[in-house]
Amino acid sequence: MANQLPQTPETETLTRVQVLIAMGVTALFLLMVAKIWQRVGGVPLLPLDWMGNAPFWGIGLGLGISATSAIIYRLWPAYRQSANLYLDLVIKPLAWPDLVWLGLLPGLSEELLFRGVMLPALGFDLTGLALSSLCFGVLHLSSPKNWPYMLWAMAIGAVLGLSALITGNLLVPLAAHIVTNLISGCVWKWHSDQKPNPSV
């Protein structure tokens, strides 16, 4: 008799429109927080310099983060489960063209807040790096079961912040973040689309 009861999913399924609206609203909120903090706190925005090798460093860093994520995904079952839970919620409802927004909206808004404003405001040093990375990780905690994904986001926040500290250029972590989101979104979407749909 217990087998006849309907099972409720752990997380509520979102529609494509809900995910796109959530991404847009979150991006706007993070941008507003960054702008208010910048204005009220008198925090200068980390420079965004397109000159030199900065775009290539950012793309290379994004490729390195994506490769590392793929390795950790294969080796750490708790991270794999946590990443699948998060990506299933966010990416599964999206169409392929929507992945451009997945790369751009979080990449731009999160980098402007966490590396562009928060890192200089908290101290453009290792203390600021640790605190901004912690905040970045907490932003990616969608549920208590998702702690491995939060730890990964904290580590990535530290890498992106370190790239900002070393180069003094927001373009490097910005490009890396966008590239990482695009690659992970496309790879996960492709693998998800290859799985046969279970019959109901």
From TrEMBL:
One of its GO terms (molecular function) is metallopeptidase activity. Keywords: Hydrolase, Membrane, Metalloprotease, Protease, Transmembrane, Transmembrane helix. The keyword Transmembrane helix applies. The chain crosses the membrane at residues 17-34, 54-73, 117-139, 151-172. Residues 95-183 form the CAAX prenyl protease 2/Lysostaphin resistance protein A-like domain. This is CPBP family intramembrane metalloprotease. It comes from Trichocoleus desertorum GB2-A4. The lineage of its organism: Bacteria, Bacillati, Cyanobacteriota, Cyanophyceae, Leptolyngbyales.
